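Consider this pair:
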Amino acid sequence: MPTATPIQVSDDELATVVYNDRGLVPAIAQDLATGEVLMMAWMNAETLRLTLAEGRMVYWSRSRKEVWRKGETSGDRQFVRQAFYDCDGDTLLFKVEQEGNGACHTGNYSCFFRSFGAGV
């Protein structure tokens, strides 16, 4: 079973993150071992801090309007191994170790299992 590894971050680094008008920033989870993009979800300032402090992916659920720890009910947890922010500070990338069946609520390993043009 993977273990959580907190990531040390400075207040200056956190201050570079640019949130949208709802106080959210997109966060991409990528499989550390394969490079496969697993999912995209939203974070706010609180869940970003929790993710880095706990070493587990913590998102903001827009539909439920609450903190959402990935895998809390499904067991399909994501353990942070590396964390990045893009050149504009408005998108986050986390390289994670995925536990369980995968990232997608459909049961697929990745949320990006469908491709355009497949039905042509």
Summary: Residues 11-98 form a domain with the Ubiquitin-like (UB roll) fold (CATH 3.10.20.810). The mean pLDDT is 95. The chain is about 10% helix and 30% strand. The helical segments are 11-15, 45-54.
